[in-house]
Amino acid sequence: MSIYAKKSLGQNFLASEGALRKIVDAAKIRKDEIVLEIGPGKGVLTKELLGLGARVIAIEKDHRLIAPLQVTFENDIREKRFFLIEGDALDTPTPLSLIPKEESYKIVANIPYYITGNFLRSYLTLDQQPSTVVILVQKEVAERIVAKDKKESLLSISVKAYGEPKIVAKVPRGSFVPAPKVDSAILAIEKISKENFKSVSEEKFFSLLRKGFAHKRKLLSTNLGIKSDTLRQIGLNPSARAENLAIGDWRKIVESL
Ligand code: SAM
Known about the structure:
Blueprint: E1 13-14, H1 17-27, E2 34-38, H2 44-51, E3 55-60, H3 63-72, H4 74-78, E4 82-86, H5 93-96, E5 105-109, H6 116-124, E6 132-138, H7 139-146, H8 154-160, E7 164-171, E8 176-177, E9 184-190, H9 202-212, H10 220-224, H11 228-233, H12 247-256
Parallel strand pairs: 2-3, 2-5, 3-4, 5-6
Antiparallel strand pairs: 1-8, 6-9, 7-9
Bound molecules: S-adenosylmethionine.
């Protein structure tokens, strides 16, 4: 039975061997490690991950894809190397209930693009964070996250607060069936931790960050309602805009206020 792709679930199935290889290479899969896959679809990426010896927990929202996945990966399910959950990946307690607290895990996925922002927020802020995330995202979103144009954004700093993002490769739209209207990129976020929040509160940090980016063209001091001298005193340019600041600068401001 052929299953038609549902646009509402962001279903663009990956059909490029080269892209699949680059995704799993970037994830540096080690035998027996736990990988959480979001939206396994018809299982092309799942097959690669299992082939490299990972233990895969996959969460798929489309009921129609569950039975075919159970048939394709019957042996892996029996051998307890593959656990398939029908559900919404944004409901994080569901997949996490299968990952022992003391075990580290990676997320490797071709996620539906409409959940990118929510996905990053939901998983990066968890107490039980993944150690690495390797995902396909819209090319422009990946470029904004790494600040390719050297201009930081609320999105880029929100990701860099937890890890180190890098673009692994571009993936043209023709690599998917059906082809989406945009090109994609493989984004890897490595060294994920809450190290940044040892000395500053996560809540204060994000509340300040949102204020700082509220009006992009205004000076940072205006957005934050502080004197430009306050910025000078902590070694920052008094006429800086939010987009000029790196993650460490934001931490300095939070610590100084
Ligand atoms: N991994 C497959 C591939 O690379 O061919 C499918 C990728 S497709 C872009 C996204 C998949 O995520 C679809 O199978 C879709 O049904 C599923 N999906 C969409 N929203 C989801 C959600 N909130 N939670 C879990 N899966 C979701």
